[in-house]
UniProtKB/TrEMBL annotation:
Belongs to the DegT/DnrJ/EryC1 family. Keywords: Aminotransferase, Pyridoxal phosphate, Transferase. NCBIfam families: NHT_00031. It is an enzyme of class 2 (transferase). It comes from Ramlibacter albus. InterPro entries: DegT/StrS_aminotransferase, LegC-like, PyrdxlP-dep_Trfase, PyrdxlP-dep_Trfase_major, PyrdxlP-dep_Trfase_small. This is GDP-perosamine synthase.
Length: 386
């Protein structure tokens, strides 16, 4: 029997070999660089809030790291996604295609626009949106009228498509962008989990029209809470900065706001933390890759599927994941490992299984339904060097 449940003691022993004898969280942040120094400088400067040099510095560093022309820092990844959707032209009563296998923030953000999610299935190898499912859905349900993609069943406009790079595994984003472009539908990449993940040499989040990042406490790098919009489009970048800063016209002392904006700009304190984290990001990615390699070899020896980036792509190895054989086996494995102080977690409940999204239109979701029962995340932190 090559099941994870059968090998549960060996798995816990292996994880303890990497992380030691204490309680092992799924993913904890590491503050081993200039965090305290930059935070102290920030406090000493009095610029702790939404104006300050660290915010600009972080944006520069994010643009340079991802290769995006522009990066706009925000209070969190959900807010970044909200603004990205507004800028892609999502309006009340529009529909937005997304995957049911995601963190709830993706669907919350499009609900803030009063748009309706439409769920299309994921690929089994990437856990990300399937271009085949997108094409199938569009061909069966959507017609282009006067340059607008219209869902024939509901009569609503399909205004955007939001795929997600699950756990840092790049989805088939080129194919998704291609299919959507045939219907004139812009793609927003939810790259909250994939800072440091690449398709070929291109960073995730830079392939669709707009990408969004998150720096929540459990992500690859953290600013406490934070996020960013990345784009190559100068007009979108300008609008993103404007909308996230209360739509205030820049002026040394006058207050003039030319539309309803949002107080979504990342504070300087958070950006100070982010600048210190960015310095360590290449090291974090290298360490995470080493750990993922060890896991891959170990699980392959046990005959247990360990999820890995598809050919031609690179994962940041944000969260490592294995596939169990059934929900019953998964539940037993989760109970055992968490009892042992080795935190493990099932993948999210599908969005269409949550009360507020249960009535949304969807395709058969065959892969999502199976993955919901079988995927388990295992310890993925960078071991704290202190
Ligand atoms: C973390 C995350 C977000 C954004 O979360 P915030 O906590 O608001 O920064 C969005 N989408 C996905 C898939 C995420 O994992």
């Amino acid at each position: 029997m090559n099941s994870a449940l059968h090998h549960k003691e060996r798995i816990v022993e292996f994880v303890r070999g990497i992380y030691g004898p204490d309680f092992i969280p799924l993913h904890r942040p590491v503050f081993a660089g200039n965090e305290k120094k930059y935070l102290a400088e920030c406090i000493d400067s009095n610029f702790v809030s939404s104006v300050g040099q660290r915010v600009n510095d972080l944006e520069q560093q994010l643009a340079s790291f991802t290769g995006a022309r522009f990066a706009i820092a925000a209070v969190n990844g959900t807010a970044a996604l909200h603004i990205a959707l507004v800028l892609a032209g999502v309006r009340p009563d529009d529909e937005v295609m997304t995957q049911p296998l995601t963190f709830v923030a993706t669907c919350n953000a499009l609900s803030y626009c009063h748009a309706h999610p439409v769920f299309v299935d994921v690929d089994k190898d990437t856990l990300g949106m399937s271009p085949t499912a997108v094409a199938r859905f569009l061909e069966a349900n959507v017609v282009v009228r006067d340059g607008k993609a219209v869902n024939r069943t509901t009569g609503r406009r399909v205004a955007a498509c939001v795929p997600m790079h699950t756990f840092g595994l790049p989805c088939r984003i080129d194919e998704i962008v291609k299919v959507c472009s045939e219907f004139g539908i812009p793609v927003i990449e939810d790259a909250a989990e994939s800072l440091g993940s690449y398709v070929g040499e291109r960073h995730t989040g830079t392939i669709g029209a707009i990408g969004t990042l998150s720096f929540n406490g459990n992500k690859v790098i953290t600013t406490g809470g934070g996020g960013a919009i990345i784009t190559n489009d100068e007009e979108i970048a300008k609008r993103a900065k404007h909308l996230t800063t209360t739509a205030k016209r820049p002026h040394p002392y006058e207050f003039f706001h030319d539309e309803v904006g949002y107080n979504y700009r990342m504070p300087n304190l958070n950006a100070a933390l982010g600048c210190a984290q960015m310095e360590q990001l290449p090291g974090f990615l290298e360490t995470k890759q080493g750990i993922a390699r060890r896991y891959a070899a170990f699980f392959s020896g046990l005959g247990i599927p360990f999820l890995q980036a598809r050919a031609g792509t690179r994962s940041n190895h944000w969260l490592n994941a294995i596939l169990l054989e059934s929900k019953a086996e998964r539940d037993e494995f989760l109970r055992y490992t968490n009892d042992q102080g080795v935190m493990t977690r099932p993948i999210w409940t599908l969005m269409n299984h949550l009360p507020m999204f249960s009535a949304c239109q969807r395709d058969d979701l065959v892969n999502s339904l199976e993955l919901e029962q079988r995927v388990v995340n295992i310890s993925s932190s960078v071991p704290d060097p202190r």
